[in-house]
Amino acid sequence: MLIDVTVPQLGESVTEGTITKWLVKEGDVVQKDQTVAEIATDKADSELPAPASGRVTKLLAKEGDVVPVNTVIAQIEEGATAGAAPPAPANVATTLVPGGDGNAGGAGGAMGPLASPMARRSALEQGVDLRDVRGSGERGRITRDDVMRAAGDVPARTEPPMSPTLRAQVDAQMRVAAGVDAPKPRGAGGESAALAQMVNQGGGFVPAIPGVGFGSFKVPPYRAKPGDQVVPFTRRRRITADHMVYSKLTSPHVVTVAECDLFRSARLREANKDRYKKEGMSLTMLAFVVVAVARAIRENPTINARVLDDAYVVFKDVNIGVAVDSPDGLVVPVVRRADELGVRGIVRGIDDVATRARNGKITVDDLSGATFSVSNPGLKGNLFGGAIINQPNVGILRMGEIKKRAVVVEGPGGEDQIAIHPVMYMALSYDHRIVDGVAANSFLWRVREILEKAEFEV
Question: Which pTM was predicted?
Answer without folding.
Answer: 0.61
